[in-house]
Amino acid sequence: MSEENVLKENIREAAYHLKVKLEGRVPEVGIILGSGLGPLAEQVEDAVFVPFAEIPHMKTSTATGHVGRFVCGTLGGKCVLVMQGRLHGYEGNTPQEVAFPVWVMHEIGIPTLITTNAAGAINETYAVGDFCIMSDHINFTGRNPVVGTEPNGIAFRFFSMKDAYDPELRALAQNAADELDVPVHEGVYLGLLGPSFETPAEIRAFKSWGADTVAMSVCEEVIAARHVGMRVLGMSLCSNMACGIEGASPSDEEVFEVAKRREPDFCRLVTRIVQDM
Length: 277
Hints:
Layout: H1 6-21, E1 29-33, E2 45-51, E3 69-75, E4 78-84, H2 95-107, E5 112-121, E6 131-139, H3 167-180, E7 184-191, H4 200-209, E8 213-215, H5 219-227, E9 231-241, H6 252-276
Parallel strand pairs: 1-4, 1-5, 5-9, 6-7, 7-8
Antiparallel strand pairs: 2-3, 3-4, 5-8, 6-9
């Protein structure tokens, strides 16, 4: 086997094993749940559970609160494949290891990805507990999963990131939020490697660049999804004000406390978005 085909073959093998474990279910939408947002997976009906560790070539989650399993079943009247927890670069995963489950989703035929996370609010008009639909992102991780020769064997390495966050899906999400009376913002997300929270000086710089929210995930997943032509919707829960904004000093405990409080609206909103797709 040539070096260029190793990643592609690993994706195919992982996809085969996952399809077997899904017991005939054919997901239409992939959903990645971020920190504190995992309880949405418990609302998936007729669910089958597949731990990441049971999928060949896939890493497992080590982040707090990330269960580390696929949940496949019905949500909002559609078959979905939910990642209850994600893979982060700060856990020691390479960019391609972070991207791997997204490429596997594509390989089993999923055309649409919803990626969610908990984020710090840089925009001072946002409040803790607000939701923000991602209109674009700034990848400041210093990493890209398409670097190297192997990803070029999956899809062409040069591709546009214009409208990486699908405009029609963003409008659909906004309409769903309006109908449910769940206020949402739309803004630019900035992704970092982590795991340390940002400094006040960094936040001031990011604000000057036009970033509205900041966290330690999403960008590599979205790049991988767009690499293979998947449509993407991104949404953040503003779990804290970014460091230095209104004197904020973020903590992991705050993230989970806010997520717990906003869990009902988050679940209602994502379920409605899936229903309306």
